[in-house]
UniProtKB/TrEMBL annotation:
Species assigned in the record: Neobodo designis
Molecular function as annotated in GO: hydrolase activity
Lineage, top ranks: Eukaryota, Discoba, Euglenozoa, Kinetoplastea, Metakinetoplastina
Keyword DNA-binding on entry: no
Keywords: Hydrolase, Signal
Full protein name: Acid phosphatase
InterPro entries noted in UniProt: Metallo-depent_PP-like, Metallophosphoesterase_PAP
Length: 160
C-alpha cells in the first residue's frame, strides 16, 4: 500500500514537471532482506508495476543499497546488468534500474550543457575500506577536474 502511495506522488510530480529526468533511490529497496535473484517477484511488486505509468516508465533510476539490501545485493546488481529477462510473471524487465555495482559513479545530464556526477557508496561495515578508497579517488578526480568549493555545491544543487 505504501509503495502505491509513493508511486502516485512521484507520478504527480513527474507529470507536473517535464524537467524530472531521473530518480535517486537511496537504499532499502526491498524489505526485509533484499531479493533472492533477478527473477524475485519483489522487482515487479515494488518497482516495475507501481512505477509503470507513462510519466515514470522512461525515467532512469540510480540505485544504491541500504542495510536491508545487503543480503540480496547481488540480485539487484544482476537485475541491472542482465539483458531484459522474463520474470515469473512474464513481464520483461525495464532498462531503467541502474545499479552496476554496490559502489559506482554516474554522470547524469541535468540540462543540455551541464551534468552532475553522482557517487554512490555502500556504507555497510564490511565494505568500508574499499568504499573509502573509491570515494577518495572520486574526490581527487573532481579536484583535478576543477570542481572546487562553491562550484561543487552549485553542481550538487543542479541535481537536486
Amino acid at each position: 500500500a505504501n509503495q502505491r502511495s509513493v508511486a502516485i506522488g512521484m507520478t504527480s510530480v513527474a507529470a507536473a514537471d517535464a524537467g524530472v529526468r531521473f530518480v535517486v533511490s537511496t537504499g532499502d529497496n526491498f524489505y526485509p532482506t533484499g531479493v533472492k535473484g533477478v527473477t524475485d517477484p519483489h522487482f515487479n511488486k515494488t518497482f516495475e508495476t507501481p512505477f509503470a505509468s507513462p510519466e515514470m516508465r522512461e525515467m532512469l533510476w540510480l540505485i544504491s543499497a541500504g542495510n536491508h539490501d545487503q543480503w540480496g545485493i547481488t540480485g539487484q546488481v544482476q537485475y541491472s546488468l542482465t539483458a531484459a529477462p522474463l520474470t515469473e510473471t512474464r513481464l520483461p524487465r525495464s532498462e531503467r534500474w541502474y545499479f552496476p555495482k554496490p559502489v559506482y559513479a554516474m554522470e547524469v545530464p541535468v540540462s543540455p550543457r551541464r551534468s552532475a556526477r553522482f557517487v554512490v557508496l555502500n556504507s555497510y561495515g564490511r565494505n568500508t575500506p574499499a568504499t573509502l578508497k573509491f570515494l577518495q579517488s572520486e574526490m581527487e578526480e573532481a579536484l583535478r577536474g576543477g570542481v572546487r568549493g562553491n562550484d561543487a555545491a552549485r553542481k550538487a544543487k543542479l541535481a537536486a
